[in-house]
Amino acid sequence: METENHPLLEVSHLKKYFQTKNKSVIKAVDDVSFTISQGETLGLVGESGCGKTTCGRTCIGLYPKTDGQVLYRGKDVHAIGERQRKAFTKQVQVIFQDPYSSLDPKMRVQDIVAEGILSHNLAPDRAARQEMVATLLEQVGLRQEHATRYVHEFSGGQRQRIGIARALAVDPEFILCDEPISALDVSIQAQIVNLLQQLQEQRGLTYLFIAHDLAMVRHISNRVAVMYLGRLVELSETEELYSHPAHPYTQALLAAIPIADPLAERQRQRQILAGEAILQARGEGCVFAGRCPRATQRCRQETPSVRQVAPHHFVACHLYD
Ligand SMILES: Nc1ncnc2c1ncn2[C@@H]1O[C@H](COP(=O)(O)OP(=O)(O)O)[C@@H](O)[C@H]1O
Ligand SMILES: [Mg+2]
């Protein structure tokens, strides 16, 4: 949605469709464009099932694309050859949503953290490797002695610290943070966000930070992209987005903070189911028209293009013609 001078990641008209068993097509990512500059954090926000994980993974070449283009340092990530792939996986890492399922509970911490060090040959011998693991553990707020313990001995927050140490082990420059705090207790979430921010400052890291609500990304993001049913509906610098949300969906998301009560949670679950059906059946028109309080006939018939409503603030909505 935006052109920068030297973006690290440049996503243009990216599409990722899935074929279901009954031959219908799920448009999980549909014509999505954005850039991320070096050292920046872009927040990517939207309800469960809207395509955030698919978008993140397609952007770093973990999923093949359906259409469009993703450039990392000017190179097409879907055209990386076998030999260059290894160098690319050292530059780009992932921190996963659920530190319970993404880390094998029966493994020792040192073996998890050392995986990348081993596969990329980053330490000359065992002692050097152990030294690197010890340093990494300290950098993520764990202790050296934790290295020989098993993952199942740790709490959710500590496990996510282990997941962060694993990602940092290869000294990457870009990290896809896929809902890294969503599975954690609210009391732990801020600690992990602060840690990620501190590591970013120390190492000049660039983040694509995915979350399902706007409250979680405000603190860490320079800019925020809002996704709804496979499409980006708004993209803006963080404070501008929270003070002047332009898209009716962003406005609804902001009004919904916090979304902690059980009734709202049940409604949210229902919306996810409805969302999947819409992802399959969708034709022309705005993806949000069915839920939008301000939708007109035109919104149901014509897909809105992206408009700029303020400096660095973009919205895909017919209201801004
Ligand atoms: N591997 C897959 N095969 C088929 N459909 C998928 C696959 N991964 C995701 N989807 C579908 O794509 C949509 C977006 O999913 P996802 O990217 O996981 O959303 P989010 O991360 O925002 O919750 C959902 O409808 C989901 O069911
Ligand atoms: Mg996801």
Order of helices and strands: EEEHEEHEHHHEHEHEEHHHHEE
Q: What's the total count of β strands?
A: 12
Helix content: 25-40%
Distance between the termini: 17 Å
Name of the CATH architecture: 3-Layer(aba) Sandwich
Q: Strand fraction band?
A: 15-25%
Enumerate the spans where pLDDT stays under 50 for 5 or more consecutive residues: 258-263, 269-273
Count of distinct structural domains: 1
Query: Over all CA atoms, what is the radius of gyration?
Result: 20 Å
**CATH class descriptor:** Alpha Beta
Which structural class is indicated by helix and strand composition? alpha/beta
Each distinct ligand: adenosine-5'-diphosphate, magnesium ion
Main β-sheet, spatial strand arrangement: 6-7-8-3-9-10-12-11
Summarize model confidence as the mean pLDDT. 91
Q: In this structure, how is the largest beta sheet organized?
A: 8 strands, mixed
Which descriptor suits the 3D outline? globular
